[in-house]
C-alpha cells in the first residue's frame, strides 16, 4: 500500500483470499463494528474504509510473516 | 493470609462483548473454585463511578477487562447508546498502577498499557479479533470456531490464577495458539482453517506485556 489508496493488485489479492478461504457461515468480529459476513467484509475492503483497511493490514502482516520465515520460525520454536 | 481479589468487567451488548462475557464467566468460575474473591462488574453495576469506588475501597490486585478499547481507552458498558470509558490515558490511568492487568480489548497495549507504573499490563497492540460461526452466534458455548480464539486468551487468566508469572501466562497462551495453528495447518482442507490461522497469528503476535513480567497474582 502506498499513500491513501490501496494498490489495486493488493486489493485483488485480499479479495481473492477472502473468497477462497472464508466460509459463508463465518463472521468476523474485529473491534466494535459488529460481526461481518464474507460479503460485508468484501464490501469494506472494496471501499477501503477503516474496517477494510484494518483487515488488509492484518492480512499483509501475515503474508510478510510467511514470506520472511517468521511464521515458520515462531511455530518451530 | 488475606484473600486474593480480582475485578472483572464484562459488558454484553454486541457479538464481541457477548462472547467475551461468556468466556470471562468460565474463568470467574475457576477463580471461585480457588476461593479467590471475584468482583464481577456487569449489567447496571458496570459504571465508571462504581469501578473507581471499588478500586479505592477494595483495591483488587488483578484487573481483567473484557470490552472494546482503543490505544488510550478501555470501555465499560454502553449507556444511552454511548460507550462509557472505565480507564482513559490522561484521565485516570493511575488506577492501573501497581496492579496486574489483563485487558482483553483492542489496541490497549499500544499506548495505555505502557503507562502502567509499578505493575504489569498484559494486552493487545492489534484489534483482538475472532471468527464466529453464525449458526451459534447466540450460543457461544457451542461455537467451536470462536473457541479457538478465546481459549488462548482465557489461558492467560487461568495461568495467573494458578500462580504463574505474567510472562509464563503469556507464554502458555502463545503455545496454545501455536498448537491450534499447527492443527489447523494439518486440517487445511477444513473450511475456514486458513482464515482462522491468519487471525490466530494476528492475536498471538499482538499480545504484549508491559511492566513487571515476573509479577504474579498475589
- How would a crystallographer describe the biggest sheet of chain A? 2 strands, antiparallel
User: Biggest interface and which pair forms it?
Assistant: A-B, 23 and 30 residues
**Strand fraction of chain A:** 5-15%
**Secondary structural class of chain B:** alpha/beta
**Count, helices of chain B:** 5
Q: How would you describe this structure to a colleague?
A:
The complex is a heterodimer of chains A (77) and B (218). By secondary structure, chain A is mainly α. Chain A has one domain. Chain A has helices at 8-21, 38-47, 50-68, 70-76; strands spanning 26-30, 35-37. Chain A has a two-stranded antiparallel ribbon. In chain A, α1 (8-21) packs antiparallel against α2 and α2 packs across α3 (50-68). The mean pLDDT of chain A is 93. With 218 residues, chain B is α/β, with parallel strands linked by helices. Chain B has a single domain (5-211), classed as 3-Layer(aba) Sandwich (Rossmann fold), CATH 3.40.50. Chain B is 38% helix and 23% strand. Chain B has 5 helices and 10 strands. Chain B has helices at residues 15-33, 48-58, 144-161, 166-186, 193-205, and strands at residues 5-9, 37-41, 62-66, 69-70, 73-79, 82-88, 100-104, 120-124, 129-133, 207-211. In chain B, the strands form 2 sheets. Chain B has a 6-stranded mixed beta sheet with strand order 2-1-3-7-8-10. Chain B has a 3-stranded antiparallel beta sheet with strand order 4-5-6, covered by helices on one side. In chain B, a hairpin with a 2-residue loop joins β5 (73-79) and β6 (82-88). In chain B, α1 packs parallel to α3 (144-161), α3 (144-161) runs antiparallel to α4 and α4 packs antiparallel against α5. The mean pLDDT of chain B is 96. β1 of chain A pairs antiparallel with β9 of chain B, so a sheet runs across the interface.
